[in-house]
Each structure stands twice: as structure tokens, then as C-alpha cells.
Design a protein that fits this description.
The chain has helices spanning 8-11, 24-35, 104-107, 155-171, 188-199, 216-222, 226-237, 242-250, 254-260, 278-286, 313-329, and strands at 41-47, 54-62, 68-76, 83-89, 111-115, 176-186, 205-209, 265-270, 299-304. Helices cover 33% and strands 20% of the residues. The chain has a nine-stranded mixed sheet, sandwiched between helices.
Amino acid sequence: MPAFDLPLPELERHRPEPDEPDDFDAFWRATLKEAGQPAPLVSVHPVDNGLRLTNTWDVTFRGFAGDPVRAWFSLPAGAREPLPVVVEYVGYGRGRGLPHERLTWVNAGYAHLLMDNRGQGDQYGNGGATPDPHATAPGGPGPAVRGLRSPHDYHYRRLITDAVRAVTAARALPGVDSARTVAVGNSQGGGLALAVAGLLPDLAAVLVTAPLLCGIRRALDLTDTGPYGEIATYLSVHRGIEETAYRTLSYVEGVSFARRAQAPAHFGTGLRDTVCPPSGAYAAFNRYGELSGGADPRREMYAYPFNGHEGGEGEQVARQLHWLASTLTG
């Protein structure tokens, strides 16, 4: 696929006006207050992961509406002191999979919480374990369109709330230095990490690659691939509700969350990404932290001109590892 979005010099200046409802902050304050039980953890059980150098626990915590959400929590075997904790969010259609699959962060010496996606996990990978009991509002079969007609019913209201609650749960686990909490994600997970950064002012860092839910209106004009294609297909059948859908989507717009974020941030994007167009990543990056009370959070962006949604793959992860280490110790 050739480059299809804006040229890089224009991307580096891309600062579209925010597509943001007047009650954006009130909406999320009310949503998180409703979900804000003081004791997030439901259960923590050790599991046999078949590994000698990593210990893993099966965690259940209370997410949106107090619903049980599953996660894997891992620590380096023999860790003797509280460690910074990386809370990781996975991609669209994926679940938490198996406990031995994602070892980068724990091998780098961090505590690691991998959150399951409610109502997802059936499209690729090794499955999930968290149902979504609220997925009955009008909408299509895919998560991106469940409850699309109302911001209160929309799937991403629930999933973003789960993502915030995952941080609260991670901070309550043993072996964690709660003052050094990091949100990490790619694609849908990147969108969730950005949302968490905008809703929690005290993260130590956020790492985002190819984020979904950024520049949503433009993405719907550019691509029919992936989750945006599901939304376009739904609107092609349910003609005339576009403004209703756009209003719902404005409450989960990643650029709005990015504007409110305060943590140091590391971004990455492929310039040939037709799943999450790079203009969305740049819109979030260029407006990152602008409502953070006068602070100018440290942030970096890496663009991969000949890569699509896979981005920089291992090279991007290497950049993240070095950047995070210097950020947490600097």
C-alpha cells in the first residue's frame, strides 16, 4: 500500500480542531465516579506459566459497573523490591491470550499487568476470558459499533473505564511501585493508553503506537479497513444517523484525551497504516498535553515511512525500552 495520508511535513504540523463535546469532562467524571469502587481487586491466583524466570498471577478486578475483568499479572522471579508497573492494553479483537505470550516488559525488569478486552478475544490470538454483559444496545456485531447510537451505551465507554480501573488494580498488587505506573498499548491498546493518560494525571509515562480512536472523523473518510470499516458498514445500512454516531464517537476521541494528558509520552506510527491512519497519531501527538495546566510534557514521535499498521515492530519496541528506562530513572 503506498502512502495515502498527508505528507510527513504536513503531518508534523497537523493540529485539527478538537471534535469535542462541551460535556466531555463531565461525562468522564460521572462515568469514573460510577465505577470508582474503593477495592478494585476481586481475586489474585498464582498460575503455572511453565517459566522459570517469570511468576504470573491470574487477576480479576472490578471494571465498568463493577463487572469482573480478567488480567495477567507478572513479576520477574525473585524480585525483592517494588518495581515500576507497566499496564498493557491489547489490540482490537484480541484477548489477554496465554500468560507466557507477552514477556518483554517483565523481562526488562518491570511488573506487568496485561488487561483482557471485555467482549473481545475471538478474532485472533489465543482468546480472552472477559464477557461484556452490557453489549445489548442497538449496534452491529463488532465491538466498534456496539451501542454506537448513544455515548452511554457505547462499547468504548465500558472498555476505557476498564482500562482506568486496571491502573487502580495494578497499583494495589504486591511488588508494585505505584508511583511509577506506565500505560502501554498498540492500535486499540494505544487508544486505551491515551485515554488513561488523559483521565489519570499521575502516570509516570505512556507509550502509544498506531493508536485507534484518534482523528476518528478523518479516519472514517480515509479508510474502510479494520474497526473504522465496521463503523462505515454500519452507517451504510443505517443511513441518516451519521451525526448521532459522530456525537457518540466524540466522547472517545483520543485527541481529546491526549490534550489533557500530563505524563511523558512516546509515540510511533507507520506512514502507510490504513488501519489507524497516521494523521490520527500526529493529531494526538501535536495536541498532547495542551490542557495540562501549563506543563509541556516530554514527548517523542517515531514515524516509519514504509511501514503500515505493524509500524516499527521490534525496532519500535527497542526504542520504547530505552526511552522508558531513561524516563523512569532520569
